[in-house]
Amino acid sequence: MKGISSVPVLWGRQINLLKGDAVGDLEEGLNIGESSSGSFALEVNEVMDMDLQPGPALPPASNILPGTGRKPAALASDEKSVGKITYYTNNHLGIGADGIVFRGDFLCDDDNKRPVAVKRIELAKQSYADREVALLLKLDDNPHVVRYFCTEKDGQFLYIAIERCAASLDKCFTKENPFDLRGLKPVMLLQQTMIGLKHLHYHNIVHRDVKPHNILLKDHSDSVTVKISDFGMSKQLADGRQSYSMRSGALGTMGWNAPEVLDESRKVNPTSAVDIFSAGCVFYYVLTGGKHPFGEPYRQAGNIVDGKYNLDGLQKDKHEDIVATDLIEQMLSMEPQRRPSAESVLKHPFFWSLKKQLQFFQDVSDRIVKETSDGPIIQQLESGGQEVVRNNWMEHITAVLRKG
Known about the structure:
- The protein is an alpha+beta fold.
- Among the domains are: about 80-165, 2-Layer Sandwich (Phosphorylase Kinase, domain 1), CATH 3.30.200; about 165-350, Transferase(Phosphotransferase) domain 1 (Transferase(Phosphotransferase), domain 1).
- About 30% of the residues lie in helices and about 15% in strands.
- The strands form 3 sheets. Strands 1-2-3-4-6-5 form a 6-stranded antiparallel beta sheet, with helices on one face. It has a 3-stranded antiparallel beta sheet with strand order 7-9-10. A two-stranded antiparallel sheet has the order 8-11.
- It is an enzyme of class 2 (transferase).
- One of its GO terms (molecular function) is protein serine/threonine kinase activity.
- InterPro entries: IRE1/2-like, KEN_dom, KEN_sf, Kinase-like_dom_sf, Prot_kinase_dom, Ser/Thr_kinase_AS.
């Protein structure tokens, strides 16, 4: 359709008139729808000049496994195996909320191994590990949450094998060798993130540590899938409960957590809205190539408590950025109850195609024609009319539409 690629900036300003769920409600009503070398020094003592006599010759050692006729597979110097899990102590993938994550393999059957990430957790923290596994099992049917495979245990640690991904989101914004998203657009990346988060919230689970490091990227050679990971701080809310007590523990990661978590004087029991706030920070981070809405790390906590965010990395005269700004401002609201749910975020025009946005305008126009001048929709639109049209709206639309 001619002109679709030039939907005017006017839309971005108009969206400010339809706050909260108003857009979603109107749309519905219109039927628009992933050490050191651990090497050690071998100390050799000097041997005194002694007259040592050789002992009897030993038979050559055999490395054939008894009863099999087969040689065992050679082990790498850093390779450790526990049950069906093998991991490599010199190959750290990261540090989770309650343990170190190593590169490893999961023995699916006698012949097949699956590459996995192995989280090693101290036995003293078994209750935390059991909780994380229970959550992973509950969430296993969603493509945007990492898969769980098995748990093994030895005398010191528990080992949890989960799906291994190519990189975490923060690796996309490093100066040297940034991760290749293989054509995955920022909007689609954020949409997949929210689909995963919506799945958590549907099961009454609050992640409590949403940040770029916990948003993983699964490489399929020709495409990339987003997956939410690390449920070490997650909280399963009891049936019928919408919030949890601050006594439940962990704050999350400084700089990505919500104000009600940082500021105890607010006396607000946190809800799943803490994840929406963190996701809002992630949205800005992705859309601006790694910037944070609350500034430099040493200022972030204070700015979050004070509600002082800066979205200047988004252009004020660019259609896509105007729509994104509207959504991010809602997600970063100081009042948890005013933040949209994960489901509402996914319904925001930020995720609409240009064709759908244009269709929305057409349907709204058709609806307005049928409204009386004192109707609620007309009154809401007119209340911000001056801010949107700025005297002469024809001067503020694209040249293509002016010629049209």
